[in-house]
Amino acid sequence: MSWFLLCVVTLIVGYFTYGTFITKIFGPKPQKATPAMSMNDGVDFVPLSDKKVYLIQLLNIAGLGPIFGPILGALYGPVAMLWIVFGCIFAGAVHDYFSGMLSVRANGASVPSVVGEHLGNFAKHFMNFFAVLLLMLVGVVFVLGPAKLLGSLSEMSVALWVGIIFAYYVLATVVPIDKIIGRFYPIFGALLVFMSVSLIIGLAVSDHSFYSQGLDFATNFHPTDLPLWPLLFITIACGAVSGFHATQSPLMARCMQNEKSGRFIFYGAMIGEGVIALIWCSLGLSFYESSDALNQTLANGGPAAVVHEVSTSLLGTVGGIMAVLGVIVLPITSGDTAFRSARLIIADFLNIQQKPMVKRLMIAIPMFVVGFLITKAEFGVIWRYFGWANQTTAMIMLWAAAAYLIKRDKLHWVCTIPAMFMTAVTVTYLANAEIGFSLPMNIATMIGVGATVAATIGFFIGYKPNSQLIANEKQL
């Protein structure tokens, strides 16, 4: 328990120290009107309170990732918790802050436009395709996951739950953001808090010992000997660093009322997600006697089976159902905004105004038809593609943030170093994985390192401090 508390305290300290440091580097302008104030359209640009924006941001980004990912990551052993803590503070929260604040500075622009502004038109067009692909995968993953959990709690079929969740997604995607998302997320947030707090307390007072295999950070405990590098950093995305968040932050960039709230809303929400990830990683490491026992449950029903077994065992039938419902809330509240973000990105690309309902439906209906067809694929395959696409999006966003900083002669290394790390992770994974080129790990790693060196050299050749840009911004 003491190790878990130390990790949580480290995240909180990181928010107040490194989060403040990142904010000072960016330089928010409290006097500057945000898009919510200057472009209020009553649909997507709607001023909301900081507390409500924070809660929506947290629920938007905290889908199945900070639950399923850490459960799967627990197979590797306690080292997974180190990645959650340090990845969250130095990479994930930095990524989320810049993806949100750069969108604020770009009038609430979606991630492809933000990336294009700082990395060029090729990057913009690539991200238009890539971000929509990621969001479609996210939406589908966040339909199938909760549908399976709801199916385990009821006598209704998973297919029926898929239809019900899709129906909700259609509604939440096209109505004004304050009508459903703004009103019901506080209730969902209460379920989330109940789930998080009650489960860790339930573990503490149970017969299960924390970290049943000990706190050995040097050993890879994975029962099938899957390599730690780079798989751990793909497996645990949400809760450490996640490109999906770059697609969600612009939604709240269109609702926040003051730039000074950026650290609380964007950096802070990621820290909150890190705590959720720590809880589920601790449960995976502690509830089962070994990685083999955890893997056996995963083999029988995937992470959803772990969630159901852990929740009902620690909290009883009623408490377990409440906890599972809290887990179900997370993917549903991310899936609806995933499709909403996809609609907005497509609308920006095609230059289609979104105030008229008919134009929102013109994009949303074909999008949901495609999403439904994707649900027919095997869940495990979808998850693997989602993991790689997710981290690749984070890598591109971090390079865009680094370019923003270096052109303004600011301390770009806070984004450049995590961008380099994620480049090595994503390229190595693609070169080695079955969904990629299936190369031996030593060759894949060499390719990953080579790609990182090439990207870094290209970055320093292509981007330098811009004296005219610096002078212009000082006048604002």
TrEMBL record:
Q: Note the superkingdom of the native organism.
A: Bacteria
Topology term for the membrane: Multi-pass membrane protein
Tell me the InterPro entries matching this sequence. CstA (IPR051605), CstA_N (IPR003706)
**Pfam families per the record?**
CstA
Q: Which family does it belong to?
A: Belongs to the peptide transporter carbon starvation (CstA) (TC 2.A.114) family.
Which keywords describe this protein according to UniProt?
Cell membrane, Membrane, Transmembrane, Transmembrane helix
Q: Which residues form a coiled coil?
A: none
The CstA N-terminal domain covers which part of the protein?
Answer: 5-143, 153-279, 297-428
Primary site of residence: membrane
Task: Tell where it localizes.
Answer: Cell membrane
Q: Where are the transmembrane segments?
A: 67-94, 126-146, 158-177, 184-206, 226-244, 264-288, 314-333, 361-382, 388-406, 413-431, 443-463
What is the name listed in the Swiss-Prot or TrEMBL entry for this protein?
Carbon starvation protein A
Species per Swiss-Prot/TrEMBL record: Salinivibrio costicola subsp. alcaliphilus
